[in-house]
Write a structure and sequence with these properties.
about 250 residues; alpha+beta; Extracellular Endonuclease, Chain A; 7-stranded antiparallel β-sheet; two-stranded antiparallel sheet
């Protein structure tokens, strides 16, 4: 984590700005009645009433996005959630698959990071077709962007502002209807967001891309609030199609 903060510091110096190397710029603003849980490779904000995280945030470097460690899918309860996370029993015969907010493919640079990606606090219930096509494609594209830019700040989660939700399992895990991702490229001074329905299983992602400000309106979350105000306003208010390549071939 220290090296990642140094990377951020250098990026800010390159961009002509300065912020403490200890600042975790990827973290959204904290909200009342949500539990902030800091794992080694990502941070999340857990909402007990939904048994879900409202966001999971992390920095993704080019080196990390190129990780290639083998892994086995093994979901476990999050030991740091004070009230307890969802369990494997919740998802059994639920009709939904666990969709990772910080995907294991982003974490294949470290065995510890892979393990953390399978905590059940890091997943949301998704329809199988949505998970296998739409969510996978979003994550694949973000990894390619990270390789191109050198480093991205990423946050993602369910749109909890859509509540109330149906629920399943002994733990009453909520079933959101929409999910989002926001991405910020410090060096390039650009950002974008995307909001997609859990029913989407085909088609282009480009029509669902938008400014970070728009995602904030939809979710009620203040992303990247540690940025200097003028730079935050500049980056989050703008979205340009030409800044982001959605035509990356299937990987």
């Amino acid at each position: 984590m220290i090296m990642k903060h140094i990377t951020l510091l250098l990026a800010w110096m390159f961009a002509g700005s300065f912020v403490s190397g200890q600042e975790q710029l990827e973290l959204p603003a904290e909200k009342p009645r949500e539990e902030i849980v800091r794992h080694q490779y990502y941070t999340l904000s857990f909402v007990e009433g939904y048994e879900l995280a409202s966001w999971v945030a992390y920095e993704l470097t080019a080196e990390e996005a190129s990780g290639s460690l083998d892994f086995k899918e093994k979901y476990t309860e999050d030991p740091l959630i004070s009230t307890g996370s969802a369990t494997r029993k919740d998802y059994k015969k639920s009709g939904y698959v666990p969709g990772q907010l910080a995907p294991v493919e982003d974490m294949r640079f470290s065995e510890a990071a892979v393990t953390e990606s399978f905590y059940l606090s890091n997943v949301v219930p998704q329809k199988l077709a949505f998970n296998k096509y739409t969510w996978r494609k979003i994550n694949d594209i973000i990894r390619e962007w990270a390789k191109e830019s050198g480093s991205l700040l990423v946050a993602g989660g369910p749109v909890l502002a859509d509540a109330p939700f149906p629920a399943f399992g002994p733990g009453k895990v909520s079933i959101p209807s929409r999910f989002y991702k926001v991405v910020l490229d410090i060096k390039g001074k650009k950002g974008m967001g995307i909001v997609v329905k859990n029913s989407m299983s085909s088609g282009s992602l480009k029509p669902f891309a938008m400014s970070i400000d728009k995602v904030e309106e939809i979710t009620g979350i203040d992303f990247f609030h540690s940025l200097p105000d003028d730079l935050e306003n500049e980056i989050e208010s703008q979205y340009n199609d030409s800044d982001w390549n959605f035509e990356i071939p299937d990987l």
